[in-house]
Design brief:
The protein is mainly β. It has a domain at about 15-55. The chain has strands spanning about 15-20, 25-30, 35, 40, 45-50, 60-65.
């Protein structure tokens, strides 16, 4: 299965990854919600140094592969 991100370098507690409108990428423990039409919001998150996917930020959300 092709993914948008390299999950092998992501902390094990991160279950979701998404890019915001400024091309910064974040990992989330729980599914985030779109916030103020430019970013994602969730209680537990971390900024990640990953390759930027070739898509709109609103289409960047991906769940960790099972």
């Amino acid at each position: 299965m092709k993914t948008k991100y390299d999950w092998s370098v992501v902390p094990s507690w991160v279950n979701w990854i998404a890019m915001d409108s400024t091309f910064e990428i974040f990992g989330f423990e729980d599914v985030p919600i779109a916030f103020d039409d430019y970013s994602w919001c969730s209680n537990v998150f971390v900024e990640l140094d990953l390759h930027t996917p070739n898509c709109n930020w609103k289409d960047s959300l991906e769940e960790r592969p099972k």
